[in-house]
TrEMBL record:
It is an enzyme of class 4 (lyase). Pfam families: PTPS. Binds 1 zinc ion per subunit. Keywords: Lyase, Metal-binding, Queuosine biosynthesis, Zinc. Its cofactor is Zn(2+). Pathway: Purine metabolism; 7-cyano-7-deazaguanine biosynthesis. This is 6-carboxy-5,6,7,8-tetrahydropterin synthase. NCBIfam families: queuosine_QueD (TIGR03367). It catalyses: 7,8-dihydroneopterin 3'-triphosphate + H2O = 6-carboxy-5,6,7,8-tetrahydropterin + triphosphate + acetaldehyde + 2 H(+).
Length: 125
């Protein structure tokens, strides 16, 4: 039987940004409490019945978001060439977490970046 488990964990960080070229207030300096949903997938369980420990997903994700938390995103090297939109933040997080977490049993499924309670971007490759 083919089986797939998708695991989701939630984290958050706070940062400021300004959107270059935006025709409105979002071009001005402002901040968000970003909510991040990290989803990973696997088909095999380990000997204690887990795809991967949620604590491991969180550990890797915290390592990545530590660099962004309480920062001005426009100063970050990645966002020199990428406007710090929710879309580009999602790409950055997806690839950074993927490079830490993927192995022969676990792969990234998607990242969801919530800018506020109403708007989010869901990204997958
Ligand atoms: N596709 C995207 N659209 C927008 C992004 C983005 O990253 N991707 N970002 C912004 C701004 O960062 C802005 O801060 C959004 O916040 P807000 O104005 O509160 O957004 P709302 O649409 O929910 O607010 P309203 O008051 O309903 O206009 C904008 N767009
Ligand atoms: Zn914003």
């Amino acid at each position: 039987m083919a089986q797939t488990f998708v695991l989701k964990t939630l984290l958050d960080f706070a940062s400021a940004h300004s959107l270059k070229g935006y025709p409105g207030d979002c071009a001005k300096l402002h901040g968000h409490n970003w909510k991040i949903e990290v989803q990973v997938q696997g088909q095999q369980l380990n000997d204690i019945g887990m795809v991967i420990d949620f604590k491991e997903i969180k550990r890797h994700t915290k390592e990545v978001i530590k660099e962004l938390d309480h920062s001005f995103l426009n100063d970050h090297p990645y966002f020199q060439d990428h406007n710090p939109t929710a879309e580009n933040i999602a790409v950055y997080l997806y690839r950074e977490i993927q490079s830490r977490i993927s192995d022969d049993r676990v792969t990234m499924h998607s990242i969801t970046v919530w800018e506020n309670d109403r708007n989010c971007v869901i990204y997958s490759e």
